[in-house]
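Why should sequence recovery work at all? Because a backbone constrains its sequence more than one might expect. Tight turns favour small or flexible residues, buried strands favour hydrophobic ones, and helices have their own preferences. The token representation captures these environments compactly. In the example below, the structure is given first.
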């Protein structure tokens, strides 16, 4: 590779994906379009330290692979699933930089997650590793007050009032999740009896 080649623009869609749903996929697709991304890497969390009662990483990883398989620009990384200990985005971004030294990274978050970012590990170092793109999400104000404006962008995306919490709850109550999650994910949930006892 010569120094004159443009850097690849790579989105990073981090999430617990328990399960992955169309809100995640639309967010990634819209950011890819608006920011001219060459690739979006979906990174299922390993051990999300701010959540409890999360499904096995392998289930969440496989559902993410199924959901993204048809999009040639979408890929899935195991860096968080395979790392021991709590999952921190600082480690995710360092690992992805090691794997893709020529990439410019764009970390994608929803409006709810960006307001929590000041609670994340080593937040001041995150700004050097990626540009952050916060997308709109129904029920959450899209605000980045207090965050460095040169490092964080806001993007309005088509509103999908879908959450993984609601999907799990629907499955546990015998309601369908067809069209909230990709068809293959509906079938995976059913085949592996996921979320049958979630409140
Ligand atoms: N419907 C949505 N629209 C826009 N962004 C979303 C949407 N759902 C999730 N996100 C964003 O995707 C990322 C990963 O979300 P996550 O996997 O925690 O899903 P979730 O639906 O928020 O899950 P849960 O209900 O279990 O908290 C977060 O940055 C979150 O803000
Ligand atoms: O780095 C942290 O301390 C940190 C704390 C909470 C969440 N995150 C990341 O934010 C992304 C969305 O997380 P979640 O829990 O909303 O699925 C995911 O990539 C997490 O690893 C990161």
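From this structural description, the recovered sequence reads:
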């Amino acid at each position: 590779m010569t120094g004159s080649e443009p850097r690849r623009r790579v989105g990073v869609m981090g999430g617990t994906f328990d399960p992955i749903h169309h809100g995640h996929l639309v967010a990634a697709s819209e950011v890819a379009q608006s920011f001219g991304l060459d690739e979006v890497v979906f990174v299922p969390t390993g051990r999300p330290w701010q959540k409890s009662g999360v499904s096995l990483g392998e289930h969440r990883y496989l559902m993410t692979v199924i959901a993204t398989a048809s999009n040639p620009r979408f890929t899935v990384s195991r860096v968080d699933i395979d790392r021991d200990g709590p999952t921190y985005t600082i480690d995710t971004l360092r690992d992805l930089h090691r794997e893709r030294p020529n990439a410019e990274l764009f970390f994608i978050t929803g409006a709810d997650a960006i307001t929590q970012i000041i609670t994340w590990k080593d937040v001041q170092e995150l700004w050097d590793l990626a540009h952050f793109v916060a997308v709109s999400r129904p029920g959450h104000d899209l605000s980045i007050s207090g965050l460095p404006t040169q490092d964080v962008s806001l993007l309005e995306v088509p509103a999908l009032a879908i959450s993984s919490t609601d999907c799990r709850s629907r499955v546990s109550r015998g309601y369908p999740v067809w069209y909230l999650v990709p068809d293959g994910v509906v079938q995976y949930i059913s085949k592996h009896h996921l979320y049958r006892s979630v409140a």
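A few observations help interpret the result. Helices lie at 22-34, 57-68, 79-82, 89-99, 111-115, 123-129, 164-172, 183-191.
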